Amino acid sequence: MQDKFKEYNNRKISEKVCEVHQVNYWKISIPVRGSQERSLQEFCPECVREEIKQKEKELVKEFEDRQEYFKTYDVLMRESMIPNELKGATFDNFIVNTTEERQLLDFAKGQVKKYLNGMTGNTLISGSTGIGKSHLSLAMAKEINESFKEKNEPKSVLFVSLTEIIKQIKEGWQYGKNASLTEHEAVKKLINVDFLIIDDLGAKNGTISPKSDWEQDFLFDIINNRETTIFNTNLDSSELRTVYNARNSSRILKGLEGNAFKAFTIKDKRYTINKFKGEIV
Question: What global pTM score does this model have?
Fold first, then answer.
């Protein structure tokens, strides 16, 4: 034992014996910071050894947790495409004024509970523009992310705009090596996360028309290799079947019984808020 603690060259063996390890305590004198005095300390060398080993284990566990969180819990805020006006979105600050808005909020909360209880499969929220679909979708993403962390089962959750991803990929076609996102990178990222939230799927701006063959194939590569995706869209089921081909629309709409909410009678919240602000001014 003495050979293993050579750094304590001023040690003395105490008469005190450790009740746990049945070895004599050591006495060492340690300089007092900022003073010429020294303090005398007694300790069991075996207890110290165990404490060091325990701290090493804790540091290794902390490092492993950090690596695990980087691949799971941290993904949502690090890699998601969240508009500035949505970043603070939660269930608590979703404005409820009507029965249908309360039903929509309860539906979103209920879907989170289902996923936490092990459900796999898609969720679809459809409705008119500006009713809070993106707000609730992001709130779901945050709640799923935090809740699985609390269960000590962190998952990767990603909130994206498919339109924005496609835009970045197409920009890469023009800039080549300077592309911010390649098609291969995008597909890999969207396939590998545990929970993918696609915001504003097939955004309806005017004419309802089919997406290009490339966009159809790009979406298929993603959803055909996933079990769980949360969509929100301002397209109804008929319009989805027009915009997306049969193999895509069937995968989007598959198994949605009890996991879809249609809200086409809720008024545009953004319009109402802006109008209210205008009246105040």
Answer: 0.77
